[in-house]
Amino acid sequence: MTADDPNNDETAAGRIGAPRDAAFYGRRKGKKLRTAQAAHLAQDLPRLSIALDDIGTAPHDANALAALFPHPVREVRLEIGFGGGEHLVAEAERHPDIGYIGAEAFLNGIAKATTRVSEKGLANVRLYGDDVIPLLDRLPAASLARIDLLYPDPWPKRRHWKRRFVQADNIDRIARLLVPGGHFRFATDIEHYAAWTLRQLLADPRFDWTAERADDWRLAWAGWPGTRYEAKALREGRRPGYYEFQRH
Question: Which of 44, 61, 153, 169 is catalytic?
Answer without folding.
Answer: 153
